[in-house]
Amino acid sequence: MKRINVLCLSATALVLLPTAVVAQQKSLKEQIQGPWSTVSCNSTDAKGGKSDYCTNPKGILILAGNGNYAWTTIASGRKDTNAPGMAANFGTWSVNEADKTLTLHFVGAYNPANEGRDIKLNISLSGEELKISGANPNTQTRLDVSYRRFK
């Protein structure tokens, strides 16, 4: 009889506890995994010049759960296949939960100066919006990109 009372009390306690206590909060890395669509893009070089690929951008960032990523941003309205206006790279990624940063290790990149290098970017997540910002020491550019999660 005592076992049934203990079991009933345990079940009641679980029902009364807030969901956040019962279900463990996902890590930032888990929360940002998946495909993201580019909403806005601003990339400037050390002299203040704007990167062509951020002109009416279309793009995707895929952060796979296995630690691989792919990132492509293309300017809308290009008339020529040889026109500038594209940034693309892929490689591996990791998150520092404490300082809310994303580190990308470039395995392959449209800009060969980035290949084999790392970039550390600040990340901010609010609902279905992910913001990435920081400086690329490899190319001396400042990057600010907003994404919306694909549904």
Structural account:
By secondary structure, the protein is α+β, with helices and mostly antiparallel strands. The chain has one domain (25-149): Uncharacterised protein PF14869 family, DUF4488 (Lipocalin, Beta Barrel). It is built from three helices and eight strands, in the order H-H-H-E-E-E-E-E-E-E-E. Strand 4 (86-96) and strand 5 form a beta hairpin. It is globular and about 50 Å long. The protein starts with a helix and ends with a strand. Residues 5-17 have low confidence and may be disordered.
Q: Would you tell me the overall average pLDDT?
A: 87
Radius of gyration, whole Å: 21 Å
CATH topology: Lipocalin
Strand content: over 45%
Can you give keywords for this protein?
single chain; 151 residues; alpha+beta; Lipocalin; 8-stranded antiparallel beta barrel; 3 helices; 8 strands
Write a compact overview of the structure shown.
The chain is an alpha+beta fold and 151 residues long. It has helices at 2-16, 19-22, 28-32; strands at 34-45, 57-63, 68-75, 86-96, 101-109, 118-126, 129-136, 141-149. The longest helix has 15 residues, at 2-16.
What is this structure's SSE topology?
Elements: H1 2-16, H2 19-22, H3 28-32, E1 34-45, E2 57-63, E3 68-75, E4 86-96, E5 101-109, E6 118-126, E7 129-136, E8 141-149
Antiparallel strand pairs: 1-2, 1-8, 2-3, 3-4, 4-5, 5-6, 6-7, 7-8
